[in-house]
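Handout, page 2. Input:
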Amino acid sequence: MHTVIGVIGLGNMGGAIVSGLAGREDISIVGYDLSEDNARALSERCGIDIAASPEDVAQRSDYVLVAVKPQHMEPLLTELAPVLSQRGACLLSIAAGLRTDQLRAFTGGSVPVVRIMPNTPAMVGAGVFAVCLDDAALTDAHKAFVPEMFGALGQVHILPEKQFDAFTALAGSGPAYVFYFMEAVIEAGVTLGLTRQQATEMTEALFTGSAKLAEESDHHVSVLREMVCSPAGTTIAATNHLDAEGVRAAIVQAVGKSFARSVELGK
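Output:
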């Protein structure tokens, strides 16, 4: 069965999703963006059709992914609601903080809704996605297709909406924690006499390799850490210092702060 995916908003995340889906023979993509340059560039790179307006996208699509800022969602969905309902399209939203019930209210309750939370590694096909299938209006076909669709862009977790704030704090915000730590390691390398380019290349390879090892190893990350910490060696001296400075506790607390802010925004 051939499926038409409409994407409204072709910025970083919308464009990444289009890039990940382009080329599939069972899918056609039609997109719209306020920036004609963005739309044209993506069309040339991925071969998608460019629509004249958001309404044009909705009229032509089986699934409509809206990748615009949360503050723009209500007026856009209110305008699109009659077209989405007439077409029988399923609405996909990646807007942070907007719950399924809010999205349904914006469309007059006439459109099945899937709420999705991505993270930025989706831009390189290595994302982690939370997918909420709580809406009772979703069909079995919707529930099967949407996770499979996003599986082409990374790892998919089907979660109840009550766990979305936890996902946001851990995986949605998580890339920033990793980049923050990477920055610190790079600065340490420069402090120790490496060039910035050397320190950056080494750190990038360090994180890529460590993540690959954690993913492919049968050992828990705690065991992998212990394998590097030889008795009275250099690594145990470093990790003991991190523990003494409360780094582990600070990370747990930081994720908790992100969780609390996500809950606050949802209100």
